[in-house]
Design goal:
Rossmann fold; binds magnesium ion; seven-stranded mixed β-sheet; Alpha-Beta Plaits; 22% strand; hydrolase
């Protein structure tokens, strides 16, 4: 029987009545579950609209108790900003750069090409400004700390993968105690950015490859992985995982992900593990 996850610790009367009509509501840790008859995408959409809650169907064959790895995108998923847009802001070229970022995240531009174009615009930037972006602009999305702490207690690994830069993933790994990271390396000479990245670009395929490499290293199957992202360049990685979470994501990403969160913070991902 399909399982519906209702990502809310409490329900008001209207929500309770609506959702109890689908099947018996089972209270769990911070969420509810309903074992229900087959439910189609249209009905799910209606329930989400009417209840104004995050509601997801567990993918077939996925078993939350067997999850060993969460792999997450960084910009606009683990953290609330797009680092490259904030770097550009310090150079007074944010509108140009964020227009390219937006188009790439919607899937209208090929990610590798768009990154090359944006990094070229950063040429000459004093690398000290990257530290200022980290210190002054970078904030975690809601629920990030709760999610990470709980995963540690459950011995589930956390991998951070980004089409952004190692400058930021390295610092977050250190600060949050993450297990694995992969991102692009900005080339620099004498404290200034060269306008290029070193080696091949971490784009959509590299993110999916990272997931598969980690499965081999941990001796687990992709079905034991949850992948979270918000952009078109996360879809190959998300598609490879047993459960994918579109986190406050573009419509094109939500349409292809197995689950979506649009109201709750990152800690709602824990509801899938019960
Ligand atoms: Mg992103």
């Amino acid at each position: 029987m399909p399982t519906l996850i209702i990502h809310s610790p409490t329900l008001n009367d209207a929500q309770h009545t609506l959702l109890n009509s689908i099947g018996e509501l089972q209270p769990k840790n911070n969420h509810f579950r309903v074992e229900c008859a087959q439910i189609d995408a249209e009905k799910l959409f209606e329930l989400r609209q009417e209840s104004e809650l995050d509601i997801n169907l567990l993918p077939e064959g996925f078993n939350g108790s067997e999850v060993k790895l969460l792999i997450s995108d960084m910009d606009s998923t683990l953290i609330a900003i797009e680092c490259i847009d904030e770097i550009a802001d310090f150079m007074n070229i944010k509108p140009e750069v964020s227009a390219i970022t937006e188009a790439a995240m919607r899937g209208e531009l090929d990610f590798e090409g768009s990154l090359t174009q944006r990094v070229a615009l950063l040429k000459g930037l004093d690398t000290g400004l990257l530290q200022r972006v980290y210190d002054e602009r970078l904030v975690l999305n809601p629920g990030a700390n709760t999610l990470i702490e709980s995963l540690k207690k459950q011995s589930i690994k956390f991998a951070l993968v980004s089409g952004g830069f190692t400058f930021f993933t390295d610092r977050l790994k250190q600060k949050l105690g993450l297990d694995y990271t992969r991102a692009n390396v900005l080339a620099e000479t004498d404290g200034k950015l060269n306008g290029s990245v070193i080696g091949s670009i971490v784009g959509a395929q590299a993110k999916a490859d990272f997931l598969n490499e980690l499965c081999a290293e941990l001796n687990i199957t992709p079905n034991q992985v949850i992948a979270a992202g918000d952009g078109a360049n996360d879809l190959l990685m998300m598609n490879a995982a047993g459960l994918s979470v579109a986190y406050h994501a573009k419509p094109a990403v939500q349409a292809k992900a197995s689950t979506s969160l649009n109201h709750r913070g990152l800690d709602a991902i824990l509801d899938f593990l019960d």
